[in-house]
Amino acid sequence: MKEFAVELRDVVKKFITPEGNELNAVDHVDMQIRNGEFFSMLGSSGCGKTTSLRMIAGFEWPTEGEVYIEGKPMGHTPPFQRKVNTVFQSYALFQHMSVYQNVAFGLEMEGAQKEEIKKRVMRALEMVQLIGMENRRPKQLSGGQQQRVALARALVKTPDVLLLDEPLGALDLKLRKEMQLELKALQQQLGITFIYVTHDQEEALTMSDRIAVMSKGKVMQMGSPAEIYERPRNRFVAEFIGESNFLEGQIKSLSANEASVFIPALNAEVTGTPASEGLVHGEQVFVSIRPEKIHLTEHSARLNTFEGEITSTVYIGSNTHVVVHIGDVRLKVWEQNRISRLEPSSFYTIGQKVDLMLMPENTLVLKKD
Amino acid sequence: MLKRLRENKSAQGTLLALPTTIWMFILLILPLLLTLVISFGKRSPDGEVIFTFSLDNYIRLLGFSSDCAGGQASCFDPLYMQILGRSLMLAFNTTVIVIAMAYPLAYFIARADPKRRNTFLFMVLIPLWTNFVIRVYAWMMLLRKEGAINLIIGTVAHWLGINFVPLELLYTPGAVLVGMVYEFLPFMILPIFTSLEKIENSLYEAAADLGASPFKTFLRVTLPLSMPGVVAGTILVFIPVMGTFIVSDILGGRQYILVGNLIQRQFLDARDPAFGSAASLILMVMTLIVTYFYTRKFGFGEEIVAA
Amino acid sequence: MNPHRRSPFILVAMVLVYIFLYAPIVGLVLYSFNASRTNVTFEGFIPSFSGRVVMDGSLVKSAPCGPFHWYCDLAKNSDVLEAAGNTLTIAFTAIILSTIIGTMAALALQRYEFRIKPFTQLSLYIPIVIPEIVMGIGILTLFSQFFGWFNGLLGLTGDARLSMGIVTVTISHIAFMVPFVTLVVQARLQGFDKAYEEAAMDLGANEWITFRRVTFPMILPGVLSGALLAFTLSLDDFVITFFTNGPGSTTLPIYVYGLLRRIITPQVNALSTVWILIVFLAVLLLQWIQSREAKPQH
Which domain holds residue A327? Predict the structure, then answer.
């Protein structure tokens, strides 16, 4: 077995828009997806994630570059000759066939024996807990059940790679959360590669071993959920995943793991960690810090500590969301409610002066574009 | 008054549907009932209807003639059964040929580039909406001894040095078949197209993804899902072919008689409305039976509205 | 997989079917320029214009309208003009009435539950599943029996008697047009979100204003395409008209049918060509309405 289940090498897909313009739906994308991993492509609609998936499945062919499956270049190999299977966003269940017939369809195409088909179909239906529904038509099933049929229909083919195109998009929130955990468990149990397309960052973070964050046809960052969240490499990723405060400034000193940035709005220097590649001395940059990573303290005089005034406070149960102004600079701060906030003398009131401490390892220095 | 109507939803519905319902009752249900009543009647010497209850007209249609050579009381005359059989066969043949011609075209249009799809459809609508009589006339011109078909074959034969006697194409059963196929082809193309167009692309992709070749995808996915269109088209073709009399009248000559011609002549030439009514009811019952069994087997699609 | 890949078989089949569809029409149009009066073989175009028609045997050598001789002839043919007038009068009258009552019925069937609903629905489906000739002779019988009874009752004689004519044709046309209008409008109503009407009522509009200002404008494209469809059905109808017309109510299809059984001059072809041209424009109009409907409105 090769190390990479699927590889995209310098893949470009051009489309002609209805207005007649050329559009790079996928723009020079490189991706290596390891065998057995749960890999997600995350981005908003039109970012190229679905097109990338469809090129792996074989529904589209790259305009430039090449898709490799198990190390073999795919060229114009049609979908029915690829060892990958897809769970469609719309499920694409055949309405004129029963659940059983839908799941058996792919095995019949392989020319499997009747007994063999029956055994494998029942095993697949068992896996997705649909025993007893074999003779129903897809229309007679709930959304969640239809989703399971689509899953069973793809899995029964024992693909090397399972492609999932927003498979949970049509389900309600509670069912979606359940299915997320089920899918993850199923993937670990089967040990096959899942490539999962979603626009839901929480979904991607929950399920994936690795995530590719995409925008405008390009991969913005690829890495584990923690890497993506803790070390976003650019402002897009920092903003798209979670929330962040951004301060504009200029690099005053720079080493491999520390940078000092002068923030004009604070009229002070902030020490942080270089997160983007290729930062240079004197460059205009963003300093990014997540709201939950700012410490609110009472007067202390340590590194990266600034005095501010609380201008708004919202209690949301597990956390308190506080807005602090340092001069004209507005910072969001989320404090976990480890202590009871029942008492009126609780910590935060509007107008209160507080010190904010930005830990250098959580204060990220990012390139401006 | 207005307030009560506002609250009575059922009365509102009845009021809205009433004009149409009355109209359809007077001009559809009532005539059909009248046809039924008259079919049990007799012809008076001056071509009027005598209302009575007699099964003579139906017995005559079934082939038991009371007008026999040699003074017999009754004898078997299969003339009307032959006409019925001929009409059924023609309707069947026309439908089969039309499906064979319409399906590839509908498939082509449904899978064409969306921008060009409308143009292709437009090209189907033009012959469809060109007048029925004019379309028969067009074939009359093509099929004549001096017509384009003989002209083309003759020219080719001349080049090849073969002696060619123009074919008698007009006034043959073949001419009627060609005319019927031409008249009703668009009625098959449109519903098949509609059902093919409704198939989502992701279904083709799913079939390919599961290992089906294009041919197998066609057999297992495309064809079954387009059956409602074929059924609707069959109804739109089979029923009118059974009742049409112009095509056979103009392309088949006086000798080629279908049920439609038979009925028409009873009303306008032979002046025997009672017998014509009986024939008309037999025709209606025959088409209803065929439609009923056919749709029960294959289901009845909403595609019928599309054409 | 390239979704637009097609097999050569389909391509060849498509070309052949289109040729089959258009060859007769092309022939028809070509012969409308025939110099030969008998129209048996194509003798070339009428070569030149002149003050009056010059004939050589059955060949037209020159004419005031040149190649368009038969079209000019057609324009002077009072029978054709009368038939065209009848056809349009019938179609316009029938379209107005059938659109109004058909739209009402569509609203009733789509929105309300009422006792006669199954009967209404059935009566709208029957014309689709019975041959037209059955309906035609049924209506003929109804009118002739009714007129016979009525004329006898009032002792009417001569021209005072009720008889078949433009009125019976129009009434009968409405009967087969209404089902189509209703089906098309009903299909349109199916996609109609009731929230629009609820919003209007919420904002203070009563039922009638809601219908006039909200519902009707929104279903108008459906009503228009239903009306246009029914209109072409009326123009095209032969069978029903054949059985319900009388003296002075000859329509174009009936007129052409009559000609086919007598001598055929290229005038028939000219008439057919004009007709095809009108149909072409009507279909174009219908497509335009539908494409406007399909586009999102801003």
Answer: 243-367
